[in-house]
Amino acid sequence: MLAGTVGPAHALASGPPTAAELKEAREQFTRGRQLEDEGKFAEALALFQRVGQVKMTPQVRFHIALCLEHTGKLADALETFRLAAREAKPTAPTVVTEANEHIEALEKRVPTLTVVVTDGSPGDVITLEGRPVTAGSANRVDPGAYTLVLRRDGEVTREQHVTVEEGQTLRVELATTADVGKPRPGPSSTQRTLGFAALGLSAASLVTMGVFIGLRADRLSDVEAACPTLTGCDRSVAPLAEEGATYATLVNVFAGLSGAAAAAGVALLLTAPATSTPSAGLRLQPVLAPGVGFVSIEGRF
């Protein structure tokens, strides 16, 4: 943990804070740092926000951003880290360095959602969880589920539910016509289909193996009936023995095929990406980015 210095004060209340208010704010800041160390980021966030109402410094804003990040508010955390870095430039270079590291990491983690109306009209209004968004613009959002609504001339013409995952770049195509934006199978759907096909092949191979086990047993019975001692047998027994050997080989072949197909099927199903099932008028094109580790900073209020 790195120690920072106090940045310029930004009093949010009317007039400068009193000595008593500053003393209480320092105590709350210290308690907030303790809660961070305990992993209680939601409680720490509430304390840091109260501290910021008394006196906002780059260090306080940094810890607000850190708590937002750890409580899943990645988009808000990214913007707050950026603001902390800008405020810290004159007096707190350590805060700038640490904030920039978080900014670089969060830019890879924060999902991006772009909404396009395929048969758009100048009067269309798109809202994301009730907040207006511009068609074609990339919107940084937190991971989670969202409701998109398309209104035309004041009437709701399309409502879609989408789920955005961390690191995803998602493009959603909305349309007011039923034949546009129909679901299209993606790589995940194909992989799952192949997985189930492999399991089906495994089951079929098991059945075939069972058939050849039965045939081999029949031929063995025929050989034992014609030559009980299995030594010095007549040449007429040879074809029966050869058939039995062939069936034994086929049993081994289908046993191996069944095992390999089962293993491949399970692997395909377990590694298939999670799917989002779009309804009519929606097409999703996910692109995943890797997660990144984080560092923290300790400031002084």
In short:
Helix content is 50%, strand content 14%. With 301 residues, it is an alpha+beta fold.
- The level 1 CATH classification of the domain at 19-109 is Mainly Alpha
Distance between the termini: 15 Å
Mean pLDDT across all residues, rounded?
A: 82
Beta-strand residue fraction:
5-15%
The helix-strand sequence is HHHHHEEEEEEEHH
Structural class: alpha+beta
Q: Any idea what the shape is?
A: elongated
Low-confidence stretches: 1-13, 178-184, 276-298
- Total strands: 7
Superfamily (CATH H level) name of the domain at 19-109: Tetratricopeptide repeat domain
Strand order of the largest sheet: 3-2-5-6
Number of helical regions: 7
Radius of gyration: 33 Å
CATH topology of the domain at 19-109: Serine Threonine Protein Phosphatase 5, Tetratricopeptide repeat
Largest sheet: 4 strands, antiparallel
Q: CATH architecture of the domain at 19-109, please? A: Alpha Horseshoe
Question: What portion of residues is helical?
Answer: 40-55%
Transmembrane segments: 194-215, 247-270
InterPro entries: TPR-like_helical_dom_sf
Keywords: Membrane, Transmembrane, Transmembrane helix
Organism: Polyangium spumosum
Which characteristics define this entry?
301 residues, alpha+beta, Serine Threonine Protein Phosphatase 5, Tetratricopeptide repeat, 4-stranded antiparallel β-sheet, 3-stranded mixed β-sheet, 7 helices, 7 strands, 14% strand, elongated
